[in-house]
Design brief:
Number of strands: 2
Largest sheet: 2 strands, antiparallel
Radius of gyration: 31 Å
Low-confidence stretches: none
Helix content: 55-70%
Order of helices and strands: HHHHEEHHHH
Distance between the termini: 63 Å
C-alpha cells in the first residue's frame, strides 16, 4: 500500500489492511507503519481515528469504537455498590466456593433459628429411597442431624420451584 492508496481507501478497508501491517511489528508499530507508508505519524493517527476507530496497544490493532449510552448513572452506582460488597465479603465468598467445590453441604441459617419452633411430622416415603438417603447422610455428613439435612432439602426444593 502506498500513500495515495491509504488516503483513497474507505476507513473499514483501510483498518483491515493496517491491522495486517501491524502484525509485522511489535514495538513502535504505529510509527513503523506510518513511516512505511511515508505519512507523518500524527497524520496517520488522525486518519486512522476517523469513523470512530481506536487503536488498542495491548492487541496492536485498530477496532471500531461503539458508543453505548445505555449504561446509566444508576447502573454505575449499583455496580459500584455490588463491587464494594464483593470486596468487603471476598473471604466469605472464597470459603463458600471452596465448600461447594469440596461438595460440602451448606445449611441455610434458618434451619438453626432459635425463634422458630420445631415440628414433628409423620411422612410416608419409599423405603428404598429413605434407606439410600440415610446411608448417604450418615456416610457423607455424620456430623449433621438428619432433620437438618431434610430441612435443607425442603429449602432447596422451595428455592428451585418458587
Amino acid at each position: 500500500m502506498n500513500t495515495k492508496d491509504f488516503f483513497e481507501l474507505d476507513t473499514a478497508k483501510r483498518v483491515i489492511i493496517i491491522n495486517k501491517l501491524l502484525e509485522k511489528y511489535t514495538d513502535n508499530s504505529l510509527k513503523n507503519v506510518s513511516s512505511e507508508l511515508n505519512i507523518s505519524y500524527s497524520t496517520f493517527c488522525k486518519e486512522m481515528s476517523k469513523d470512530d476507530y481506536v487503536y488498542i496497544k495491548r492487541d496492536n490493532k485498530y477496532y471500531k469504537f461503539i458508543k453505548d449510552n445505555s449504561f446509566t448513572i444508576q447502573q454505575e452506582k449499583n455496580l459500584s455498590e455490588q463491587l464494594l460488597y464483593i470486596k468487603n465479603n471476598f473471604d466469605k465468598f472464597k470459603k463458600l466456593i471452596e465448600a461447594i467445590d469440596n461438595n460440602y453441604l451448606v445449611l441455610d441459617k434458618r434451619i438453626y433459628s432459635q425463634s422458630d419452633k420445631i415440628l414433628n411430622k409423620n411422612i410416608k416415603i419409599n423405603s428404598l429411597i429413605y434407606d439410600e438417603f440415610t446411608s448417604v447422610c450418615s456416610n457423607k455428613y455424620p456430623f449433621l442431624k438428619l432433620q437438618d439435612i431434610i430441612s435443607q432439602c425442603l429449602l432447596d426444593f422451595l428455592n428451585k420451584n418458587k
